[in-house]
Amino acid sequence: NLPKKVKIVEVGPRDGLQNEKENVPADVKIELVNRLTAAGFPNIEAASFVSPKWVPQMATGREVMEGIARKPGVIYSALTPNMQGFEAALAAKADEVVIFGAASEAFSQRNINCSIAESIARFEPVAKAAKDHGLRLRASVSTAFGCPYQGEVPLAAVEDVVKRMRDLGCDEIDIADTIGVSTPLKTKAVMETAIRAFRIDGLSGHFHDTYGQALANIYASLELGITIFHSSVSGLGGCPYAKGATGNVATEDVIYLMNGLGIETGVDLDAVVDAGAYISQFLGRKGASRAGNAILAK
Ligand code: HMG
Ligand code: MG
């Protein structure tokens, strides 16, 4: 008894592109978001309001948010590590802001330059401001399945940070496999911990595909009743502060899986393949989605 319906959050314009060395101009990002909107995603992570010294590729956030053709009902999200990011996201009319922390101290330091406890203190005013302005609030918990610097991450650490995010009033919490190391039994153990610490209907699986396990991890999560998943068109991406990590699971592969399982997504697979072909052509390389490449080869 898998869920009948899931929400796919397309993170390609943010997680997918943030690590690209070549500058991707705002108009290309805008066209990508518009094509993804046309494909039917209910939620698109479109920008990140972080320090441009840390992640230069995301410096165009405001232009992107102002340039996209918004479809009513679609949630356009932006990452906001602190109040400076929140103010920028608010000015750019983000529908949802994403605070992002980690379950490992080492990753928190490398990614956002502070301890987990300090990050929660920075998120408090962001969470409050989001509520005051009627914006949705989401939290991302990196390295929940393993850390590139410290290795194993105890379940108790995941539980602790999920509870802190819950207490900030998050509408949704993402459990992230930053470096794509999880396998299904591990995924179930981590997700069960997160479900106990939060609630099942607000939890999402954010799986990178470094070790080729992301679809298996999604299936394991479906078996637990998780109904929100993140994916990146064409499998774009990687995290600048997680060396060697590849992209998120490819959206085309996830939609193909859901279609095969009879699980409703509201997303048109051919339109995603089209968006993937567009950005792959711009980047000058073949897309990383197996399903996408198979469909293009037909
Ligand atoms: P810091 O240096 O500790 O911050 O960085 P600070 O408050 O001391 O400020 C230093 C400078 O940054 C100042 O500028 C600030 O104005 C500026 P200066 O005076 O030197 O010119 N600054 C900002 N500029 C624009 N927007 C802001 C902002 N905040 C400060 N919001 C900070 C702390 C968090 C800012 C920094 O570490 C940073 O930007 N890190 C980037 C982290 C990041 O974007 N990582 C990738 C996304 S997370 C991810 O990919 C994981 C995820 O996908 C889930 C998963 O897979 O695990 C979500
Ligand atoms: Mg990620």
Automatic annotation (TrEMBL):
SUPFAM superfamilies xrefs: Aldolase
BP GO terms, sorted: ketone body biosynthetic process; L-leucine catabolic process
PANTHER family: HYDROXYMETHYLGLUTARYL-COA LYASE
Source species, domain of life: Bacteria
InterPro entries: Aldolase_TIM, HMGL, PYR_CT
Protein name: hydroxymethylglutaryl-CoA lyase
Keywords tagged on the record: Lyase, Metal-binding
CDD domains linked: DRE_TIM_HMGL
Family of the protein in this entry: Belongs to the HMG-CoA lyase family.
Pathway: Metabolic intermediate metabolism; (S)-3-hydroxy-3-methylglutaryl-CoA degradation; acetoacetate from (S)-3-hydroxy-3-methylglutaryl-CoA: step 1/1
Pfam families named among the record's database cross-references: HMGL-like
UniProt KW Metal-binding keyword: yes
Domain Pyruvate carboxyltransferase: 6-273
GO molecular function annotations of the record: hydroxymethylglutaryl-CoA lyase activity; metal ion binding
EC number(s) on file: 4.1.3.4
PROSITE patterns, A to Z: PYR_CT (PS50991)
